[in-house]
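URGENT: need a sanity check before tomorrow's submission.

F., can you look over the Peptide transporter record below? I want to be sure the sequence and structure line up before it goes out.
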Amino acid sequence: MPIISILNPKGGSGKTTITTNLARSLHERGHKVLIVDSDPQGSARDWHAANEENPLPLVALDRANNVKSLPDVAAAYNFVMVDGAAKLEDMIAASIKITDFVFIPVTPSPYDLWAASDLVEFIKARQEVTDGKPAARFIISRAIAGTRLGDEIVTALAEQGLGVFGTHITQRQVYPQTASEGGTVFDSKNADALAEVNALTDEILAFIDAEGA
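Structure tokens as predicted:
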């Protein structure tokens, strides 16, 4: 039962969008998935409340001491997806300490990558005392369809010392449209969005398998 935290202290990076769509993708593949909203702003909770028939369970753990209890809760699930808080260092630190994998969504801008540098350093410091855990990767989010990453983005990613998934989540209206109804792209007929979420899920599952989780 891997615990996956979607973290970035910067707002607007796509944390809740990626958390909810990945969770639904795993659910569609037959996995038992729990979403954890660790952000006091409650974006994931608002999303969940907008759909009384939401197939995914959600719990709110928006205090650092509460997050510490998550491994016990997680035992009943195949995957736990933690929607990370923004700008709350104690919450982010608590999440990193109990998580198996940290995925960091960043928009294709060097400014967003630089903003995540403190988070990357915290992850690396944790890895040094825990035999490489949590494993971490970047996810490019809100990319513009049909464009390529610029050289400055590639350089900035390399400087952070973490890998990046090949699949990008692009900026599509279907994401906020389905979210406003408590749904995901799996409630739409947008083939391109479905394809990229499924492709990212494939990459993440392969990465988890390679890490031996």
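My own read: The chain has a mean pLDDT of 89. The beta strands are 3-6, 33-37, 58-60, 79-83, 101-106, 135-143, 163-164, 169-170. If you see anything odd, call me.
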